[in-house]
Structures are given as C-alpha cells and as structure tokens.
Records
---
Amino acid sequence: MLKKERHDLIMRQINLHNRVLTSDLVSLLNVSEDTIRRDLQELSESKRLIKVHGGALSTSYQSSFDDVHVYARDAKRCIAKKAIGLIKDGMVILTGGGTTLIELAKLLPPQLTATFFTVSPYVAIELAKYEKLEVILIGGLFSKNSQVTYGSHVINQLSEINADLCLIGTSAVHPTNGLTDTDWEINQLKKKMLSSSKRAAILCISEKLNTTQRLKVASLENINYLITEIDAACTELNDYRIKTLKIL
Amino acid sequence: MLKKERHDLIMRQINLHNRVLTSDLVSLLNVSEDTIRRDLQELSESKRLIKVHGGALSTSYQSSFDDVHVYARDAKRCIAKKAIGLIKDGMVILTGGGTTLIELAKLLPPQLTATFFTVSPYVAIELAKYEKLEVILIGGLFSKNSQVTYGSHVINQLSEINADLCLIGTSAVHPTNGLTDTDWEINQLKKKMLSSSKRAAILCISEKLNTTQRLKVASLENINYLITEIDAACTELNDYRIKTLKIL
DNA sequence: TTAAACCCCGCAAAAACACGCAAAAAAAAA
DNA sequence: TTTTTTTTTGCGTGTTTTTGCGGGGTTTAA
C-alpha cells in the first residue's frame, strides 16, 4: 500500500470517529506500530490531526473559535496573565463567561492540574484542551445574550460547590457602587458564584472602571482581587485601594 | 511496444484503480523499473497523474486531506435535513454531540419553537442563535475526547427528562450488533439518552454502516429512525429493514 | 510499586529512486 | 541502401526513503 493511501485511510478514520487509537490502526492497516506512529507524526506536523498519547484526534473540534475578533484582546490577555498568577496546582476554580475568561483559558500553563467549574461552554471548550484539567460545565438554561448557563438549575448546582477561587468578568465597577450589572438573571448568577467560592477575583478592563449599571452584584468588600490591564500602582486605581481588596 | 502505448496502458490502470504501483507496472509491461519510472515522471510532468513514492495516483484521487474540515459535510447536511423533518413545533428534543448534530443545529428553520436539551456545548451555542428556541445545556464533567458532558451528574439529570425525540450520532451501526461505541462513559450516556426519550433517531453517515465497535449501546429494535445520507430505498440498507425501524 | 501500554531513537535491510553511460532502436539524412 | 543523428532503453552504482526491530525510557492504571 502506498504511504499516501495509508495517510488517507488514517484521516478517514479520524474524520469518521473524531479520534483513533494507534493500536486500531495497526490492525486495520497491517503495519507496525512504528509506521503508524510515524504517519501520525507527519500528519500531526502538517496540522491534519492532533497527536495524543495512544492515538490521534480530529482538528475539527479544536479550531472553532480561534479567529473571532476580540475587542481589546491585548488588554484582556494582560489581565488573564495576572489572574493566572492566582491559580495554583490542585485548586478548584469557578469561572464565569466572557472573552476575558476565554483568553485566560487559552493562556493557562500546560501542566496545570486543577478543577474548573464554569458556566461558559466556550471556556469549557478551551479548558478541555489541557490534558490535566478536570472541567465541569455547569448545566442549565443557556442564555442567548450572555452565552452562559443560568437560571435556578445553575443556582442550585452552585450551592453544592465551594471553590477556592472564583474568576468573573464584569460589566461595571465603581468605588462606591461596587460591582454592577444589567441583566437580572446574570446578576443572580454572579451573586451565587461569589458566594460559592472562598475568594473572588474580578477581571475588568480599565474602561469599565468607575462605571455603574442598574443592578448591584456585590460591594468591593466582597471581592478579594481586582485585576485590570493597568499597573497596580497607577493612580487611576487609587479609589479602589481598600484593605480587603488586592489590586493586581 | 511503443512508448505511447505504454503511457496509455499506464493511464488505463490509473483510471481503473485510481492508483498504481511501479512494481505492478514492471511485471505488467515487461520493461525495466527505470522505464516505468521515466514514464511516470513524464506523465506526472504533463499532469496526467500524481507521482508518489512507490507508484502513482489518479489526479481525480481527492484525498480526504483536501477537505478535512468539510469532510463529508454534504453528507452530514443531507442527514441533518432529513432529521429536521422529524422536528415539529413544541417538541422537546434531546441531542448528543458530534459534527452531524452541529450541522443540524445550523440548519433548523428560523421560526421553529421547541425546547432543546443537549450535552454538547457546540450544539448549544448554535441553537442559541435561534430566537424562539429554549436551550438547556446539560451540565457535568466535560469530556476532552467527545466534547460533550458526561458522567453521573449528566445521567442524573437525564433521569428527569422525558423528551419527545432523541437525536444522536453514532460511531458504528451494524444489522445484528446494533449501535456500538468505543468509550464506556459515552456508551452509558447514550444509553441513558435513549431511555430518556419517547423516540430515538440515529444520525449516521453511510460509511459507518455495517461497522462495529467494542461496546454495545442499543439494538436496532430500540431505535425508531435510522437516518443516513443515502436514499432510503437503496439496497445497501436492506439489512436494516425491520418493522420497528424507519429508514429515512 | 509493578505491569502493561506507549513512545522515542537509532540501526539496518529492503525498496524505491536518480544519474550517467552505453547499447539498442528508431528516425533522419545522405 | 547506408550513414548519421536522435531517441529510447537497460544496467551499474550510489543515494534516499521507508519500514520493522531492538533497546530503553515514559506514562498510565491497578
């Protein structure tokens, strides 16, 4: 059999089943493991599949949301990196949705071992790319606006969770008004998320500082970390310097 | 033999089998390897075939590489359209994951009003684009392989659901072995999904017909609809014609 | 911890290939 | 027809590609 044909058959298997085991290919194609491994290596190098221990995966799933334009991506990445500094091996993390959290999910250290609960399918999909993470997607009604799960079912499940750290984005932060939002259901959700975690970090690009929305989620006193893309020492953040809130 | 005749014979072989081995041509035409190699070289230069190590391929041999991301997409869309025919306003639908289901989610009629339960974040994201659909993402552990939620928590939630129609893809279908799969957890999940619905439809591209994987999900008797991209009257499907199974 | 499965690396044999050369064949010219 | 020229072919030789195997390391699951 020609090598190209073999590659073709392998790709067929991958496209058919989304994943394939090296051992299955060995018996299917009647060649040695080494040959299969070398084939997978090559196909992997040309990005036609993703090689993993014991076999290979389809690329089709992995590349769905990569090239979406993200507003202020650099700022969000900067925030994400700071937030990642809070995450240690073995922690249980609870995350909300939003582009900043998705960026964060893309920038985690590859060898991190942790448990992530999230209400965002997008975040879950990104987190699932890390071998060592346990990812739990909290289920419930799916919000068309916020693209997260919400509603009583989600709230119920959050009651059973006690995370080490909660990471959420926000619509608005204000020195006296604290954390505010526009949507009542999302508001409820964030409140519950905060109460389901020992510590909470707010990820917030600087232009949302000093703004207020209609519905209050939490006071600054209930938050442990405020993370923006600007330097923690910057005077712009002076109004937020209270004892219980660490600015990163 | 004239060179031109040889070339014609080589092309005939190529057109006949889509591929040819150098060694086969040597014994077929009783000339030296070098001659064959030179012929293939020439034919390749005039783009009549594609030369590869060990032989040559037809130019019309489209490797599945060329359309990795859209592999069998047409087939899947065809299947999706047939499956959509089963969906009526007001129904409660339960869906699994997989590319076919994602295609289906993209092709729904815009004004459909229905409730969708799904274990796939991808499907949920697509469904959320329809104004009139209620989308419930069933939460739980998120499978890195299958990209769906799974595990006991999912199973528990499925216990509380009684859908009108369950739509799932499959790894393999066989006339006697029925529905089979490779992953134990996904296996459990599919079993439960089937039992959580009044009717069940299997979405399956024809290449998966007559194949079997390690673990049994269900017999054909437990399935109500088998949907492939090929015509329902096609003889290829004869082995699947049992009273309780409608082929679309 | 151990056993099994998986992976990586380098080697060596076999297969495939490339290139020059000269004989053979074909074509062209005398 | 004979001679010359061109083309084609097969062979020898050396190179590259492919493949299986052994040894040894790593990962995984019990």
Note: The mean pLDDT of chain A is 89.
---
Amino acid sequence: MTDRGGYQQFCPLSMAAEIICTRWTPLILRELLCGSTRFSDLRKGVPRMSPTLLSKRLKELEEAGVIETRPRPDGNLDYLLTEMGEDLRPMIMTLGNWGHRWIESTVSLRNLDPSLLMWDMRRWLNTGHLPSRRCTIQFLYPEIPGGGRTFWLVVHEGEVDLCSIDPGFEVDLMVTADLRSMTAVWMGMTSLRAEIAAGRITVDGDAGMARAMGDWLGLSRFAPEPRRVA
Amino acid sequence: MTDRGGYQQFCPLSMAAEIICTRWTPLILRELLCGSTRFSDLRKGVPRMSPTLLSKRLKELEEAGVIETRPRPDGNLDYLLTEMGEDLRPMIMTLGNWGHRWIESTVSLRNLDPSLLMWDMRRWLNTGHLPSRRCTIQFLYPEIPGGGRTFWLVVHEGEVDLCSIDPGFEVDLMVTADLRSMTAVWMGMTSLRAEIAAGRITVDGDAGMARAMGDWLGLSRFAPEPRRVA
DNA sequence: CTGCATCCTCTTCGATACTG
DNA sequence: CAGTATCGAAGAGGATGCAG
C-alpha cells in the first residue's frame, strides 16, 4: 500500500475501505463471521474465487489486524477474527440488509447456486427441531443437469454434515425443489408454505420432519429484513 | 456484469458488495452523503481519482439506482442520491466509525493532505458561531513547501468559500498550524486546546473569533466515535 | 487434502492529454 | 468547468504444479 492501492486520505472511511472494500473481501468476512475458520471451508463460501487470491486476501486481513492465524491440531491453520474483525459484524449486516431491502429479487435470483444454498443451509439448520437420532435429509433439484443435483444433510448429535455424494444412510426425508423457489424461500422472498402449495417444492418421508420443516430449516440471516422492492 | 466482475451469489451481501465495494465507490458515496452534487465538487473529495473513473463510477451508481442525475440551470448535471442511495448512510457511517475505532492514528496520519482537510473543514464550519458580517480566516501550514500552504475560508451570509489563492479580503483571523496537529484535532485524536498549548497551532487576530474557534471549527463526522487504539 | 506458488491471459486503473 | 479518449501498468481469474 505504498501509493497505488491506497486512497491517501486520512479519513477513517477511506482507511477502512482500503481494508474492507477490496474484491471478495466482504464475502470472506461474511464467511468468517458465520463461523468458518478453515481454508477449505472458506473456499466453499466463495467457490468462484481462486485459492491464490483467497490466500492473498487472508494475508492482507491478517496484516491489517482483522484476523489472526492459529495452528490447528491437524497441522493446518485456523483463521480467526480478532476483536477488531468481530467488530465488523454490524457493518457487514448493515450492508447485507441494505442489499436485501433494495436489490430486486429478479436480479438476485439470477445467481442461483445449489452448492452455495446448501452450504448456507447446513450452517443454519436448527437441529433442535429435528429428532435426536441421526437423520438424513435428501435435497433434489431435478432441473440441474448431470451430477450435482442431489445433496444430503446428515444430522447427528447436533452436528450437520453436507454431502454431495450419497453417504449411504437411509433417507428420512426427501425434498424435491425448484432451485429458484428454494432459494427464494431461503431469502425470505416467499414462504415455504406457498411454494409447497404451488407444487414447486415437495416433501416426502417422515411426517413429523416434514411438518416441522419450517422450524428446522433456518433461513438466511438477511431474510427477516423487510424488503423495499419486488 | 455478465460473468467477470460479479460474484454470482444470490446472497444480498454479495449483491450489495458488487455495487458498493468497488474501488473509490465508498468515498464517492461519502461525498454524496455529505452533500456534494456537482462533478467538480465530487472531484475535490477524491482528488487522486481520475475524472474518467469518477465518471464511470457515477454511471454505474446511476445504473444501480443509487443516484440519479438532474440537469442544472447552468446546463451541467447534478448527481443526487435516490432513496436507495440515502439509505446507505448508516452503512457508510458504520464503516467509517469502525475505521475510527480501530485504525491507528500513526497510520491515518501518514495520509496528510491540507486541501482535503480544508475542503472537509469548509463543509462543516459552524457559521452560527462566527460574526454575522463577512469574515475571512486564513490558514497557514508553514511546513508545506512552495504554494499550496495557504488557504482562506470566507464566510458570508451563512455561505462558506474555500480559496487557495488570496481572495483579497482583510484577514480577521490567522491560524498557523502544523498539518499533522490540525488534522489530529479535526479527527478528534487530540484537542484544539492541547495543540495550542503545545504551540503547534497558533491563532492571531480577532480575539472573539479566536476564543470561539472550538465552536465554529466543526470536527470530522467520525471524531465523536470513541477510539480503541492509539 | 491443505495451502499455497507460478505462469499466462484478460480486465481494470491511473496519468495525461484532449474536446465541447 | 464537465467530462472523454488513449495507453502503459497493475491486478484478477484460470490452470497447473507442488510440498507437507
């Protein structure tokens, strides 16, 4: 940050923007604030970012004091927010809530991505509203061609695993969904009930789990924000 | 934004970051939120940005619905925040306040710029604490070599003009300051009183105006935020 | 598998000059 | 004063390779 790259303004907004408002950085912060600490988990949240650039950004954030690294027992690194980094949560939420208020759903829903949706779903699943035994929920997006249309969420002792290849367990609940509808539900743009009624999402299997889907399916953290546009 | 440039995530944070977190954009928004509406005024707030890029960014913000343009009587354009754009104020303030809390003053104060400081000062001068007649305050930063070390703030009927060449009026008050000290005062990192006591800022001329300097000198909008670092 | 480094191509940015 | 055109330099993405 000698000359290029820096705005050369003493204003704190300028200094903050130099750290935070570079390409991909807000999304990396979102992942960290959502609890990801491993390089590979961070990558799942920003799948279109090259690992080289992710590595570079993490170093920059560490240099700025936003994160710190700690060796894990397995020999790899954990990337952890410092107090300075954790203090970015209100800013990230404010920006995301603004987006949710003002970005048209027709625009947001151009960027459908089942892996990303499932990864976020895994993160916020309310395991307390599922049976205490191990249970397996299969999601199928029939419109998606080839492999990659099927996902399994395996819940066991409060832990949730996302699989994109069949884990082999008996499936307790099978959700078949239009990807756009499932994403819209997740974003709070429509209701699960409405999409099921319209036949765009169907649920088969354990009746109790099916009935409680509105409870165990946590929505996006931005879904509660009231929208200002269609 | 077909493929490159976009994050391709439906998450509202991602959509918002595509619009807001591009190079220079937060600073342009700061200027707009502070009330600048003309191209030339916006440039004064981001003097190191090329006019080409400023023009491009303004078009992008208009396309996104954050600003709109309106023809002025003089034939040029006014750039005005829409409701969507005005709604970014909390986010920009949150980010700036974060910067003020966490960025070390030694880092911020590497980016001294007297023009920028004076431009911001002009913006927030409390004219109500100055005599109602026209008055002229001269600022001198002796350390700065060559021209560009002297500025005049001319206050007349509630309007403030910033001049970098002598407007020719009689000077009512003369402020001689170390640029770093004046900037630190402006940012709320130290007090005017302390810097005057230390001899790093001196004030000569109209005794009433000198005494009231703490009142008419509005500080940065971020100055009130309590700092977490030195 | 994790966490990069390297090489290459394409896009974006900055500096300067220029036009209505 | 309010922007636009041009061009070289830096940055970002993709593919590949590699050490632990």
Note: Chain A touches chain B through 54 residues (CB under 8 Å).
